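hey can u run this one w/ zinc ion bound, need the structure tokens asap thx
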Amino acid sequence: MVKQVAEGVLINQSEFIQSNTVVVQGRAGVLLIDPGITGDEMVALANDLRELGQPVVAGFSTHPHWDHLLWHAKLGEAPRYGTARCTAAIRDVLSDAGWKARIAEALPPDIADQIPLDLLGLITSLPRETAQIPWDGPGVRIIEHQAHAPGHAALLIEQRGVLVAGDMLSDALIPMLDLNAADPIEDYLTALRLLAGVAGDVDILIPGHGSVGGADQVRARLEQDRAYVNALHDGGVSDDPRIGPSAKHGWEWVSDVHAGQL
Ligand SMILES: [Zn+2]
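ok here u go:
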């Protein structure tokens, strides 16, 4: 069920690690960010949008991990976008004839048969350095960085004071680094600095997984993520309260799936 979190911005939360799909209302329909997880959830979302008289006019995937790349035919045939690096990463995966079996193995076993893979990752590359998502609605600024996954985009909807953080600034999951990158810790700290640079413009924070927060949460989660990553860097032990909940969601599984392995 979609729920409004700011003027013209709604979310639909999955039961799978509180995954948030973001719906942004434009002039002729909506932009859908990270469309959803199970087929039933995406069909329910498509039905909700039809009742609201809001067709999907564009899609966007924040980063090239399966749980942000799904789609359902009932959502229509709008163009779906990702950053150039994100799109290159998923094309690389899809170019392997055995991609479906590989991804199927990585899915959470209890809901694997409910996750439709047919339309996974069929996104169009935006040119490098594209500043805004091309669509007819409130400006959505792309803040690209290399933390968590290649070409990861955080999105700032300036007119609404909303930051869509992708898989950062979560209250449910600890920071998950892109372990395939040359310097994952520095990438993460750089991304946190980028997000801190826009924090003053943010009233509502929507993480890829977890609860929506206000301006105070932006600062608190930036601080919490920075402390966690610094502790990793220093080889120390973190007492981050999210470690327990992350483990409950199958932290080892989540780390595999989110650490660039898809
Ligand atoms: Zn995710």
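The mean pLDDT is 92. anyway lmk if its weird
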